[in-house]
């Protein structure tokens, strides 16, 4: 014979799980406010002017702001990411996203002349 309270606890548990799920959905919606939906059919069309550049040989003490400032000399930087791990060759690396790049080859060429302290940056178009 089943205890009288068992079914009641079970209902409360599933109701609390359902409320927790709804709270997570609300938080996710709030986090995504203002962020473009990448599945939107015109997302690629509207944002095709972005260019991502892979940058390596970043000094260990360099911050995202340091890399931003160096790269901003040759174009309008909109995002910088520096990976926490090293490349296969043991260097620190990251990605810089530019907007409205007219000549990506010239941009990469300019970035290859950049130095951060004693580190000569390496740059290439991100695939």
Which helices and strands, and how do they pair?
Elements (H helix, E strand, L loop, with lengths): L5 H26 L11 H4 L3 E9 L5 H8 L4 E11 L5 E8 L4 H8 L3 E2 L2 E2 L1 E4 L2
Antiparallel strand pairs: 1-3, 1-6, 2-3, 4-5
Give me a quick take on this structure:
The chain has 127 residues and is an alpha+beta fold. The protein has helices spanning 6-31, 43-46, 64-71, 104-111, and strands at residues 50-58, 76-86, 92-99, 115-116, 119-120, 122-125.
Short descriptors:
127 residues, alpha+beta, Alpha-Beta Plaits, 2 domains, two-stranded antiparallel sheet, 4 helices, RNA-binding, Nucleotide-bd_a/b_plait_sf
What is the residue-mean pLDDT, rounded to a whole number?
77
Unreliable segments (pLDDT under 50, ≥5 consecutive)?
2-11, 27-38
Query: What is the number of helices?
Result: 4
Strand content: 25-35%
What is the H-and-E element order?
HHEHEEHEEE
CATH topology of the largest domain: Alpha-Beta Plaits
- Which CATH C-level class of the largest domain is it? Alpha Beta
Count of the separate structural domains: 2
Tell me the structural class.
Answer: alpha+beta
Region (Disordered): 1-44
Biased composition (Basic and acidic residues): 15-32
Organism: Tanacetum coccineum
Keywords: RNA-binding
């Amino acid at each position: 014979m089943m205890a009288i309270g068992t079914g009641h606890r079970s209902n409360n548990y599933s109701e609390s799980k359902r409320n927790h799920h709804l709270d997570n959905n609300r938080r996710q919606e709030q986090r995504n406010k203002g962020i473009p939906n990448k599945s939107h059919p015109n997302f690629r069309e509207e944002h095709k002017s972005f260019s991502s550049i892979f940058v390596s040989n970043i000094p260990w003490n360099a911050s995202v702001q340091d890399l931003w400032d160096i790269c901003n000399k040759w174009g309008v930087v909109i995002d910088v990411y520096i990976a926490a791990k090293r490349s296969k060759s043991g260097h620190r690396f990251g990605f810089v996203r530019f907007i409205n790049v007219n000549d990506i080859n010239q941009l990469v060429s300019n970035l290859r002349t950049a130095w951060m302290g004693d580190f000569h940056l390496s740059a290439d178009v991100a695939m």
